[in-house]
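Good morning N.,

You mentioned wanting to compare the apo and holo forms, so I went ahead and generated the holo version with zinc ion. This is what I fed in:
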Amino acid sequence: MISSLCPLCGQSATFERPPDHDEYTVTCARCVQFRITGPLLRSFERSRANQNAGVIDLLSHLSELARATHQGGGTLNLTVDNWIDYGRAQRQKNPRRKA
Ligand SMILES: [Zn+2]
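and this is what came out, ligand included:
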């Protein structure tokens, strides 16, 4: 088990990785729990390091989605192929409130 920062919300989190898969189960106080593939995890780390605003905005929505999915009894599985769709869908479902 590795302790590091959550790729979605930046809080401290724990990572568990099965020996035969490049995939992590991340547990953190804000997102509760979700799964993420190794390539996507490294891609998010690069995006944060580069302060890629478009990605970082979607990450906050993915954090909400991970928590909501867990509350509904499931686990969010993030891969390189699905995270943009999930992030955008969540942003539409839960847009910033107008003043
Ligand atoms: Zn988190």
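Residues 53-71 form the longest helix (19 residues).

Happy to go through it together on a call whenever suits you.

Best,
F.
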